[in-house]
Every structure is written in C-alpha cells, then in structure tokens.
Write a structure and sequence with these properties.
Length: 66
C-alpha cells in the first residue's frame, strides 16, 4: 500500500498523526508528512482509519502499490 498526502488540501488537523503515528508525522508548520511512501503491513489498518478520518480528504492510499 502506498500513501500520498495532498499538500494543497492538508490543513493540519493532525488526526492522521494521532491515529497512525507509524506512518504520519508533522512538518515544522504542522502539516502532515508521510514517513515513507510505502505503508508497512502492520500499519495498513491504522493508515486506512487515518485516511478516513481526515476532514480534508487529503490522504490517498493506493491499495495496489508497494
Ligand atoms: Fe492534514 Fe488531514 Fe492529517 S488535514 S494533518 S492530512 S488529518
């Protein structure tokens, strides 16, 4: 599974970081960054929850990637 964050959409709600700190972190401005482009298998469930919970729909998961 690959993860991508739309920087234009992200407003820094940080729900993704709270729900899945193994995949998401914040940059110096408080916006989300992905720690790696490919989500480790053990974090896939949390990554889906994080993507679903983002109010800006800024997180895209590619289930077929990686
Ligand atoms: Fe940004 Fe959504 Fe996370 S707005 S900080 S990607 S919860």
């Amino acid at each position: 599974m690959k993860v991508r964050i739309d920087r234009e959409r992200c407003q820094g709600h940080n729900r993704c970081v709270d729900m899945c700190p193994g995949v998401f972190d914040t940059d110096e401005l408080g916006y989300a960054v992905a720690l790696a482009g490919v989500v480790p298998p053990e974090h896939e469930s949390d990554a889906r929850d994080a993507a679903d919970s983002c109010p800006e729909r800024a997180i895209t998961l590619d289930e077929d990637g990686g």
